[in-house]
């Protein structure tokens, strides 16, 4: 990428910069590209497509349909098409009662979905290794600044840069992340569990403060073990505070973290699941974080705009299974509003305001739902 020069708007009337190349960012970029916007650039901080989250993600029908309309066939990112969820009550390490219900959606993994999206991005649209460090208004339009000294002008900056969003820190600095007091420990096994097709949720006595989820993924299975951890324990397990290391990659899992998870598995889970945890070598973790509900999604920067969406807007607790869904739905709503502007001359500020008005309630509801769900399992404050 070359250094900054002021560039005129093209025929579409809108130069769009998308920040973040995980799930929400590529979805937004693809939707805008499909809607006819030809001046879209995506900036991702991580140099190449290094693995980030990796784990299981449940997508609801609304998100699945948006992906379908983008021409991303479901079989590319859904390898196990079971809709069944088994809630299993565990008492003294024994499965006691099972309740089966259906999920209005399908399970994918971050890796499968990320690949399906990014392989469709037109050549030259995505720029990796570009960490955004600042946003100013210059010549009446937003100007992004990068860690490598470059800058890039846009009419609209779409921040889809996740929980620790620089966009949120710049635009909405009072909304900070707070550690919720527990961790989503994650593991991926390299051998599959015979007969495992559904999503299993083990629910021990809520006084224990834990929950264990298990589902099949290509080549093995994926588990998430929610366990309480004080900030000091978090530092001991992962070498940094929850605010500094929100996502913990395999190389940052210490022996102390492994031992603590194994001990909890032995203490609370049935033998089969405890053994599975013990035998899992690839482990990750995510700090469960809270944030004040958002009150806005759009900011005027000179004659241009900046918006927040996905986890950048509102990271939600994982039990809600809404994070990726929110990002995809918000991206689709944004593309619809911008299409009205491009095709029919709708006033841009009003179109963005309408988008915010439609999307905010769902984001607020998901932020508020997380602590309620966690309370059922005795997790967090
Ligand atoms: C245990 C667990 C289970 C979950 N289960 C579900 C589920 O079932 N359903 C669901 O919908 N969601 C689920 N989620 C949430 C889901 O994973 C996230 O909501 C989703 O990944 C957010 O996507 P995103 O693209 O908005 O942000 P992220 O995935 O966080 O991506 C942000 C991107 O921005 C980049 N970036 C960051 N800063 C900068 C910068 N300064 N400059 C440039 N680039 C930058 C990052 O490198 C990253 O690629 C779960 C999460 C966890 C932890």
From TrEMBL:
Residues 15-368 form the FAD-binding domain. Pfam families: FAD_binding_3. Transmembrane segments: none annotated. InterPro entries: FAD-bd, FAD-dep_Monooxygenase_BioMet, FAD/NAD-bd_sf. SUPFAM superfamilies: FAD/NAD(P)-binding domain. Keywords: Monooxygenase, Oxidoreductase. Coiled coil: none annotated. GO terms for molecular function: FAD binding; monooxygenase activity. This is 2-polyprenyl-6-methoxyphenol hydroxylase. It comes from Paractinoplanes ferrugineus.
């Amino acid at each position: 990428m070359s250094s900054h020069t002021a560039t005129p708007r093209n025929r579409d009337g809108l130069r769009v910069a998308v920040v973040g190349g995980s799930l929400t960012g590529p979805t937004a970029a693809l939707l805008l590209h499909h809607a006819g916007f030809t001046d879209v650039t995506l900036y991702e901080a991580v140099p190449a497509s290094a693995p980030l989250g990796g784990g299981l993600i449940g997508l609801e029908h609304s998100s699945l349909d948006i992906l379908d309309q983008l021409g991303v066939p479901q079989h590319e990112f859904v390898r196990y098409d079971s809709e069944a969820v088994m809630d299993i009550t565990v008492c003294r390490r024994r499965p006691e009662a099972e309740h089966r219900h259906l999920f209005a959606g399908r399970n994918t993994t971050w890796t499968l979905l990320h690949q399906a999206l990014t392989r469709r991005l037109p050549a030259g649209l995505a720029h990796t290794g570009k960490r955004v460090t600042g946003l100013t208004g210059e010549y009446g339009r937003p100007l992004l600044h990068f860690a490598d000294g470059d800058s890039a002008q846009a009419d609209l900056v779409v921040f889809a840069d996740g929980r620790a969003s620089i966009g949120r820190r710049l635009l909405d600095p009072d909304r900070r992340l707070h550690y919720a007091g527990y961790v989503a420990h994650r593991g991926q096994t390299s051998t599959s569990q015979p007969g495992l097709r559904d999503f299993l949720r083990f629910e021990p006595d809520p006084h224990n403060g834990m929950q264990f989820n298990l589902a099949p993924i290509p080549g093995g299975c994926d588990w998430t073990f929610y366990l309480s951890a004080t900030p000091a324990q978090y530092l001991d397990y992962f070498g940094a505070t929850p605010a500094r290391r929100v996502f913990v990659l395999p190389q940052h899992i210490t022996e102390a973290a492994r031992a603590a998870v194994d001990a909890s598995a032995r203490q609370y889970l049935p033998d089969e699941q405890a053994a599975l945890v013990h035998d899992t070598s690839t482990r990750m973790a995510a700090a469960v974080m809270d944030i004040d509900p958002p009150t806005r999604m759009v900011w005027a920067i000179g004659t241009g705009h900046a918006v927040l969406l996905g986890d950048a807007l509102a990271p939600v607790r994982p039990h809600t299974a809404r994070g990726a869904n929110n990002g995809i739905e918000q991206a689709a709503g944004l593309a619809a509003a911008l299409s009205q502007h491009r095709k029919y001359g709708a006033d841009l500020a009003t179109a963005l305001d309408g988008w915010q008005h439609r999307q905010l309630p769902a984001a607020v509801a998901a932020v508020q739902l997380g602590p309620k769900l966690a309370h059922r399992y005795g997790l967090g404050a």
